Request: fold
Amino acid sequence: MKFGHPMKLMVLWLVCLCAGCGYHVRADGEPVGIAIQELAIPLFTSTSSEMGLEAVFTRVVREEFISHTKVPLVPEERANMVLIGRLYDIRTDPIGFDDTGGFTVTSSRRIRLKVDVRMVDRRQGRVVWHEKAFEERTSYRVGGDPVAAQLEKQQALETLARRVAKKIYQRSVERF
Reply:
């Protein structure tokens, strides 16, 4: 089979693209460009009055690190690195409305929050990595049943926590 000139260029272009991007995946669960022997992730802090928000985010971030890295999570006093997080600028805004019986009611809301997170080398007392404003948002349905609406909100917060945890892991350990 004989390749034409355009086909050779396409194959050459694909080879160069794959070989030259510099991106690599660490399948062994080891951090890239940072020495983490043991990591502590203390309870996140929050400016929200939402009860339990800190615990949800801390749990989900810990799960993300446990599921993707071989670095052991330990108490803060034993860790060489500490991941410190703060939830702030938490807003819930109405985004959808229904007209029922002459009244306009909220049918959906958007929840948005920012996270300040940093990794500190505890032994040297220096900040290794800092992200001041991770921002995530999602929406959820609000119906006539307040219990169902609260469940929807809790599920939305869990979704936000998973997205934030993935970003924290990727940017702090995988370094992109």
